[in-house]
Design brief:
Helix content is 70%, strand content 0%. With 208 residues, it is mainly α. It has one domain (10-204). The chain is globular.
């Protein structure tokens, strides 16, 4: 995987990245090399990157849960939106790999901001944001490919795949989808969140 990572196996690399004694610069070089690997072979390296980032994602999830507790937001909703945001940032970062500091920290910061935007007053039913849009297109066709695989695997139905594609990829307002379906905004938001969480969990397990 390059000079920064060397010949380490993934468990060894994870230990290195989690070790507080590891210099920050070395961790940044490791994550920069991982992003290059993602750019070359997204499907191969995505499960590894998610596994390596899980400790940080869990910490951020706990922080967001405490921050959003007054809004009575379920932990699984936070996890789903945080992971969605992290995937978006991974796609964008892997397409423009440069020399940066706090590589993982920046990804987690951006994922946390995404989750907060999505889960604020509407409990995930944001209207007008296009969170995947052009940035997710950094890996051409990849988001739609994941949705197709999820439908083929029976994880979500075709209607939910279309809902995610229209609101996440094409930027259609979620409120308009609620009107189109003749249901409340909260209902269509919950439906999309359940489908996204199913896809996200499958990605984490390396099934898509």
């Amino acid at each position: 995987m390059g000079e920064a990572v060397g010949l380490l196996e993934l468990p060894e690399l994870r230990g290195l990245l989690l070790d507080t004694a590891t210099p920050a610069g070395l961790k940044d070089r490791c994550w920069t090399e991982l992003l290059r690997c993602l750019r070359r072979a997204w499907d191969v390296w995505l499960p590894a990157c998610l596994w390596l980032a899980l400790p940080g994602l869990r910490r951020r999830s706990g922080l967001l849960h405490r921050q959003l507790r007054p809004a009575d937001v379920a932990l699984e909703d936070i996890d789903g939106e945080l992971l969605t945001g992290f995937l978006i940032e991974l796609q964008a970062a892997s397409s423009q790999v440069g020399r940066e500091t706090r590589v993982l920290g920046r990804l987690l910061d951006a994922a946390s901001r995404y989750a907060l935007r999505t889960l604020d007053a509407g409990g995930g039913a944001h209207d007008g944001l296009s969170p995947i849009g052009d940035r997710a297109a950094a890996v051409e066709g990849h988001p739609e490919l994941v949705l197709w695989r999820a439908v083929g695997a029976g994880l979500i139905c075709a209607q939910d795949s279309e809902l995610i594609a229209r609101t996440r990829l094409e930027g259609h307002p979620l409120r308009a989808e609620a009107v189109r379906a003749g249901v409340s905004l909260a209902a269509v938001s919950a439906r999309r969140r359940r489908a996204e969480l199913a896809v996200a969990n499958a990605v984490l397990r390396g099934e898509l």
